[in-house]
Amino acid sequence: MDLGIGGKRAIVCAASRGLGKGCAMALAGEGVDLVINARGAEALEATAEEIRTTHGVSVTAIAADITSAEGRAAVLDAAGDVDILVNNAGGPPPGMWSDWTRDDFIKALDANMLTPIAMMQAVVPGMMDRGWGRVVNITSQSVKAPIPVLGLSNSARTGLTGFVAGTSRQVANRGVVINNLLPGIHATDRAISLDQGVAKSEGISVEEAKMKREASIPAGRYGTIEEFGAACAFLCSQHAGFIVGQNVLLDGGATNATI
Ligand code: NAP
Q1: DSSP-derived secondary structure letter, 190
Q2: pLDDT value for 96
Q3: 215 within 8 A of 208, measured Cβ to Cβ
Q4: Is 94 in the pocket of ligand 1 (CB under 6 A)?
Q5: Residue 115 pLDDT
Q6: What phi and psi values does residue 184 have, to the nearest 5 degrees?
Q7: Quick check: CB of 188 below 6 Å from ligand 1?
Q8: From the CA of 130, how far away is ligand 1's center (Å)?
Q9: What's the CA-to-centroid distance between 5 and ligand 1, angstroms?
Q10: Which of 52, 153, 174, 245 would bridge with 168, disulfide CB 3.0–4.6 Å?
Q11: Is the CB of 67 under 6 A from ligand 1?
């Protein structure tokens, strides 16, 4: 299927590895020119070069913390007018509901709610003026079904989800569609670090923790960043213009719910 987005321009935040990289690769595979971002310059440039070599698109790498105002300004300055925005950042650490302080919540809200909102506020008006735009926010399965140790994520991402629910319906008539992609467990560094946390707290090996988690997923495995990227590219495509304000769960069936 031709997604019809060749020659468009995208920002993909937090994209040197993991799900962000999967999205950047998939968009590049459709001929989209990219501005990608992460904090670590070396890994980011390596990913940029891998994407250029694989897909022959233009890739600008901006090493910056996307949760800071300066980092966002650097990415937005480099990008100029864009057609597509993929919002992403690192997830908050696991912990216990009774331990988190106000500062912990502010940090999580900054990274996983206020940063994607600021990025949308910066680029969506231009998309509306030009009559076309796509925004995908990488959130989490935890929006549909809370993950007890990830209460900071449960809270911050639900706030973003509410913002998207309202805003997406105010901009759709100008050709801009905003949706959220909700990853269940995917084979990335984040998954390894979550498995390490379970291994430590349950006194089992990391491999045992992974096998235990895989057994809880109807698909019997972790998702891949390629599958995730393909879903993202579709939501950024010409064909997705009637998909507005949705929360698309990619979790191998792990969330046991009828809808
Ligand atoms: P990952 O493999 O750890 O990759 C995170 C990427 O984001 C890296 O490129 C990292 O590079 C970049 N990054 C992190 N913080 C950043 C910041 N402040 N500014 C700019 N770039 C930043 O993580 P992932 O598994 O792809 O997860 C992506 C998001 O999906 C996270 O929010 C995570 O909580 C969520 N999620 C993941 C899963 C899963 O199973 N993987 C499930 C549910 C939700 P630098 O460190 O160099 O900045």
Answers
A1: H
A2: 95
A3: no
A4: no
A5: 98
A6: -85, -160
A7: yes
A8: 30
A9: 25
A10: 245
A11: yes
Mean pLDDT, to the nearest integer, of 119-141? 98
HSE-up of 121 (CA within 13 Å, CB side)? 11
pLDDT at residue 41 is higher than 90: yes
Angle between helices 206-215 and 189-202 (to 10 degrees): 100
| Contact 210 CB / ligand 1 (< 6 Å) | no
Task: Give me the count of residues in the chain.
Answer: 259
Q: How confident is the model at residue 190 (pLDDT cuts 50, 70, 90)?
A: confident
Residues with Cβ within 8 Å of residue 228, at least 6 apart in sequence: 19, 22, 23, 181, 183, 186, 250
CB of 154 within 6 A of ligand 1: the answer is: no
Which residue intervals of 12-114 are DSSP H helices?
A: 18-29, 41-55, 69-79, 102-109
Distance 187 CA to ligand 1 centre (A): 12
143, 184, 183, 150: which is closest to 165 by C-alpha? 143
Tell me which residue has tokens 């707290």. 201
Q: What are the residues whose beta carbons fall under 8 Å from the beta carbon of 214, sequence distance 6 or more? A: 220, 221, 222
Write out the two tokens for 239.
Answer: 């064909």
Q: How many Å lie between the centroid of ligand 1 and the Cα of residue 129?
A: 31
21 Cα–ligand 1 center, Å: 9
User: How many C-alpha atoms does 17 have within 13 Å on its Cβ side?
Assistant: 13
Residue 40 pLDDT more than 90?
A: yes
Q: Which of 39, 147, 224 to mutate to test the pocket of ligand 1 (most atoms within 8 A of CB)?
A: 39
